[in-house]
Amino acid sequence: MIQKDETKELAWVARIAVEDKDIPEFQDKINQKLDYYTVIADAPTDGVKKTVNPSRLNTVLRKDVVVPSMKVEDALKNAPDVYETSFKIPKIL
Amino acid sequence: MTKDIASFKAAGDKAVAESLEKIKKDDSGIFIAACGDAKAAGSGPLSGIPIAVSDNISTKDVETTCGSKILKGYVPPFSGKAVDDLTNAGAVIVGKTNMVEFGILGAVSTKGPVKNPLDNTRKGGPSGSAAAVAAGIVPAAVCSDVGGLLRVSASFCGTAAFKPSYGAVSRFGLIYYTGSLDQIGVTATTVSDVVTVMDVLSGNDNRDTTSLPDKMVYSGGKPLSGCKIGIPEEFLEGVSADVMKTFDEAVATFEKLGATCKKFSMNTAKYMQPVHDIIAAGESSAMLAKYDGTRFGPRAEADNWHEMIAKTRALFGPVVERRIMLGIHLLMAGQYNDYYMKSMQTRTLIIEEFESVFKEYDLLISPTAKDVAPELGGACGAGCDQEFSSYSTAIAGVDLAGLPAATVPCGFVGKLPAGLQIIGGYLKDADVIAAAEAFEKAADVKSPEAK
Amino acid sequence: MVYENPDGVMIGLEVHVQLNKANTKMFCSCTSDYTDSEANTCLCAGCLALPGTTPVLNEKSVDYAIRIGLALNAEIENETDFFMKSYFYPDLGNGYQVTQFDRPIVKNGSVVIEGEDGELKVRITRAHMEDDPGKMAHFGTIEKSTGSIIDFNRSGMPLVEIVTAPDMRSAKEARRFLDKLRSILEYLDVFDGTREGAMKADANISVNVFNGKRIEGTRVEVKNISSHKAVEKAINYEIMRQKDYLRKNKQLVQETRHYDEDRNVTISLRVKETADDYRYFPDFDLVPMIVGDRVEGIRAQMPELPDAKRERFVSQYGISDAHAKSLVTERAFADLFESVAAKVDQKSAASWVADVVKGELNYRDLPITAIKGDDIVTVIEMVTKKEISEESGVTVIRTLLDDGGKPADIVKAKGLAMVADDFIATAAKEAIAESPDAVADYKAGTEKALNFIVGKVMQKAKGKADARLAREMVLKELEKM
């Protein structure tokens, strides 16, 4: 079960601005899920391999052949802010 | 009210225009946007046929939002493989169907809920795809199916739908939130129309690692006569009495068709929903990380990048936000082994049990959803984190193992339809289709009004 | 002689190598050659992490990783897979890096370098594949910038990260390891070290002896060492800093520091106390990779590596080990030497290529392509046939590099052809006549006086005489006296 401060920390790790007044509800609903998940604890998984994807394929590789890149206008057309042909963002620190 | 591909074909040049007209007038939350025009129709098996795609399938130059505020204004510079396939087959993509935010069951779309064309006080399901068919706007809709996004919608609206074996349809351009559980499928008025569209969508795509090397063949499946059908008892738990009645009738129909139906128990059934939920949460925490207002989409104001992205990401709805936070929590070192690793291992157990079950049975059946379409504004009206578990254990199992599954209407509760889910072994898509088609024909389910 | 390692220095390296000899990126078909391109012009929706893209692994990047593993005498993991490493950063479009975790494709290898006291085996713990993020630039410095810009051309470039055990005991050994690694990678043709960002290293450094006593050192990671010159300076600075802390009894913390090349210092990067949790988990968009027969196919085509080539040069051509070592550091030099050695005396070829050509190229910072093997052959032949002096031969090489042209034309234009024997005979007589003191000294047994007279002859010939011939002529004349 997660505590209130852990919930706040999780919101920051997730980079989601959650208002303080909403934290208890978030905490409560996340904990409900964690509680629900305890069902799986008794699954007999000792020594069982993990399944990452239901595909039965393996070693799917691509030939090393260049396909032309997209146009720079297309690359930038959804950008919120642009400087010359780069994506512009606020300062990082 | 529904119209099949043939009747749209008969309408000729007017088919697309009429469809677009209806989408523009849609006030039932079935569509997020209309697009395309009649002139775009090419030649091919779907020539001149209007088709809808869910709003999580990328459409070049057409806004694609996944029902989320965080993608408002996002116009993909490319189309998904499914869209290209449909267009190359002559179809016209006429609209983007509504869907719960990113397809996460229980989340809320910017467009609100889909109203059920059969009863506008009820929901039309987590996506608008089946409602678009049920309302006669399009003869078929393509929609990704994760957690029943497609199958549950079809069950609620009385349409046929099919989700193929994992890898049959390329996911290129599909904006999935949980890549190992999602697969594109089709809904239409009849199984035969579903197959027509599935055939267009299937085939290898070298841009998707999980794409099967060979094109899936949907014809030539096993006939129902002599077919052994299994009914996992756990798939019936929590099913409403009314829906159970339609299911019992379906069982009788199968037996009339020469199949034998037998109930049995699946040991791993109780793990299916929580494992699906844990894996979906973990994967979504990574898949939804790219929405940071840096390269596309809206951007909130802040003088520092980290603050900016946190404010921008608050555009996700609360159910999605909690899903991401939960996923992050589950993947952190302290919890990883107990939840995520355990789920990946339990997934193996689930797949292995399905494999052994399919040695004994040719097909499995279950109600598609535990109940008929719920009321609008009900318990999950404003979004709800537990909605998924209200559907069916079978849906979770099918997603986890990547199995083919169809849903066809099997009866009505008042004016609301109930769906029957037919599940096949991995790559046994043709068997599922054959059974669905035979059942559809024999059961001849009609709404009380039609009768 | 055994190296004492007085400060108990232990250095481990993590080297990021861009597999830029592959034509395309790691998970998409975009070009890997973006060096001269404008920002955001060498990319696709996948490089930009637009929604709805799916990765497909480049066959070449796998083959190159295997090639590296074999060259590092390592084990190749038969079944390997990829993980997502999550963190938010502007240049990381997806919010996760695709990398490997508990099953890296390469593990348990080694590289032998020239250590402080002879051969040193540096253990390779692992080498794994991962993709490169984009590149960020700041308006002003990172601390004081008003904003930043991002170019995603680099996003998705295939990388191999090679991790060593802490086996190096000095900055010099670390640099030699990197030199050796770079040389091997170039031999493997997986990497072009001249491209920006092709090779970057992080170093883990600890000082484990203080006041002659063994102590539990503190491991400090120094990041962002991008040039070979920097690695030695950065490590030496960090060793000095740690020793200084120990002397002053200041608390050393296990941390990550950033090397500032301009100021030659390492700076603490610590912002928060809590360790980052990257939430590694398997990449569900990819399927497992089974290496299988691929390894044997690649092994069969492995090029000869520097150490083997060095041994072969010594035994096959009879050249000195020092020459062989110098010739094999770059594959192109070794090839140049072999092409020259096929046509002229092999020891001369070694000496001219290793001593003269390499030195002159380095001095001018020119690539090996600046000179033709055939021109070197011509110069060596002219010297051997005594058409020009050795000194003139060097002049010809220099002129070839500075102005171009053909050796024969340069000899003619500069008047470098050797003077005739009778000229030298005359000059010898004159020199003897002009140096009575030296002649007397020589006659009295001072051998050195001979050099003075020969020098005079060479002066008269303006350097275009064979020094040995001049000496013989002088001796002949002196005997007559």
Automatic annotation (TrEMBL), chain A:
GO terms, molecular function: transferase activity
Sorted UniProt keywords: Transferase
Keyword Transferase: yes
Keyword 4Fe-4S in annotation: no
Listed GO biological process terms: regulation of translational fidelity
InterPro entries: Asp/Glu-ADT_sf_sub_c (IPR036113), GatC (IPR003837)
SUPFAM superfamilies, per database record: Glu-tRNAGln amidotransferase C subunit
NCBIfam families in the cross-refs: gatC
UniProt protein name: Aspartyl/glutamyl-tRNA(Asn/Gln) amidotransferase subunit C
Natural source organism: Methanimicrococcus blatticola
From TrEMBL, chain B:
GO molecular function, one term: transferase activity
Keyword Transferase listed: yes
Domain Amidase: 37-432
Domain of life, per lineage: Archaea
Pfam families: Amidase
The keyword Repeat appears for this protein: no
Keywords on record: Transferase
Name assigned to this protein: Aspartyl/glutamyl-tRNA(Asn/Gln) amidotransferase subunit A
Source taxonomy: Archaea, Methanobacteriati, Methanobacteriota, Stenosarchaea group, Methanomicrobia
From TrEMBL, chain C:
GO molecular function: asparaginyl-tRNA synthase (glutamine-hydrolyzing) activity; ATP binding; glutaminyl-tRNA synthase (glutamine-hydrolyzing) activity; transferase activity
Catalysed reactions, as listed in the record: L-aspartyl-tRNA(Asn) + L-glutamine + ATP + H2O = L-asparaginyl-tRNA(Asn) + L-glutamate + ADP + phosphate + 2 H(+); L-glutamyl-tRNA(Gln) + L-glutamine + ATP + H2O = L-glutaminyl-tRNA(Gln) + L-glutamate + ADP + phosphate + H(+)
Keyword Ligase: yes
Keyword match Ribosomal protein: no
InterPro entries, A to Z: Asn/Gln-tRNA_amidoTrfase_suB/E, Asn/Gln-tRNA_Trfase_suB/E_cat, Asn/Gln_amidotransferase, Asn/Gln_tRNA_amidoTrase-B-like, GatB, GatB_C_1, GatB_Yqey_C_2, Gln-tRNA_amidoTrfase_suB_CS
Keywords tagged on the record: ATP-binding, Ligase, Nucleotide-binding, Protein biosynthesis, Transferase
Gene3D superfamilies assigned: 1.10.10.410, GatB domain, N-terminal subdomain
Catalytic EC class: ligase
Any matching Pfam family: GatB_N
Domain Asn/Gln amidotransferase: from-to ranges: 335-478
Transmembrane segments: none
BP-aspect Gene Ontology terms: glutaminyl-tRNAGln biosynthesis via transamidation; translation
EC number: 6.3.5.-
Sections of the chain in a coiled coil: none
Family under the similarity heading: Belongs to the GatB/GatE family. GatB subfamily.
Oligomer and partners: Heterotrimer of A, B and C subunits.
NCBIfam families, alphabetized: gatB, PRK05477.1-2, PRK05477.1-4
Record's function text: Allows the formation of correctly charged Asn-tRNA(Asn) or Gln-tRNA(Gln) through the transamidation of misacylated Asp-tRNA(Asn) or Glu-tRNA(Gln) in organisms which lack either or both of asparaginyl-tRNA or glutaminyl-tRNA synthetases. The reaction takes place in the presence of glutamine and ATP through an activated phospho-Asp-tRNA(Asn) or phospho-Glu-tRNA(Gln).
Name by which UniProt lists this protein: Aspartyl/glutamyl-tRNA(Asn/Gln) amidotransferase subunit B
Organism annotation: Methanimicrococcus blatticola
Encoding gene (name): gatB
